[in-house]
């Protein structure tokens, strides 16, 4: 009986943070914002990822992660790549555009997957509302203008 190999995608950051996907390792796995991708990111919130960003391809000697000419690049363990081998039973962190969604990518059998430590999720970004910042700046400027008129 042949061993069953699975691709495991743990979403570390981005709109799917905390989710896990398990996919067949004998077919290509596409990453991007396009809904046809097996690993699809949010089209409105994960804008650093391209529509069709990268894909994991099975081959005779293992798997290869290939950037598909994305606008913002593909980073594996912090290094920008156009193509890189993905070893069985070794997890890598993939970032789709600098600051874009990050995943832990793992290819292995059931026993190897069971030995994976829990994923280290990135803290969700603290989003400061640009509207509140603009209002605050306006209040400060109005106060300075009034002070200037009163003092002058």
Q: Could you describe the 3D structure shown?
A:
There is one protein chain. With 152 residues, the chain is α+β, with helices and mostly antiparallel strands. Helices cover 18% and strands 35% of the residues. The chain contains two helices and eleven strands. The protein has helices at residues 110-114, 130-151; strands at residues 5-11, 20-24, 29-32, 39-40, 54-59, 62-67, 74-76, 79-81, 83-86, 92-96, 102-109. The strands form two sheets. The protein has a six-stranded antiparallel β-sheet. The chain has a five-stranded mixed β-sheet with strand order 4-3-5-6-9, with no helix packed on it. Strand 5 (54-59) and strand 6 form a beta hairpin. The protein is elongated.
Distance between the termini: 90 Å
Q: Give the % helix.
A: 10-25%
Tell me the strand order in the biggest sheet.
2-1-11-10-7-8
Q: How many helices in DSSP terms? A: 2
- Beta-strand percentage range: 25-35%
> Which structural class do you get from the secondary structure elements?
alpha+beta
Q: Which stretches are low in confidence, meaning pLDDT under 50 for 5 or more residues running?
A: none
Major pleated sheet: 6 strands, antiparallel
Which geometry do the CA atoms define?
elongated
The Rg value, from CA coordinates, equals 22 Å
- Number of E-type strands: 11
Indicate the mean pLDDT. Answer: 91
Order of helices and strands: EEEEEEEEEEEHH
């Amino acid at each position: 009986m042949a061993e069953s190999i699975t691709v495991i995608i743990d979403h570390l950051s981005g709109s799917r943070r905390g989710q896990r996907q398990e996919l067949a390792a004998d077919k290509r796995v596409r990453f991007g914002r396009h809904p046809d991708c097996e690993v699809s990111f949010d089209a409105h919130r994960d804008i650093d990822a391209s529509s069709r960003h990268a894909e994991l391809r099975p081959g005779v000697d293992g798997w290869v992660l290939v950037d598909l000419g994305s606008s913002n690049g593909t980073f594996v363990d912090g290094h920008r790549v156009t193509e890189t081998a993905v070893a069985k039973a070794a997890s890598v962190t993939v970032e789709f555009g600098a600051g874009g969604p990050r995943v832990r990518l793992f290819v292995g059998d059931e026993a190897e997957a069971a030995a994976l430590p829990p994923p280290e999720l990135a803290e969700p970004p603290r989003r400061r509302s640009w509207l509140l910042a603009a209002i605050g700046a306006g209040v400060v400027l109005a106060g300075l203008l009034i002070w200037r008129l009163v003092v002058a």
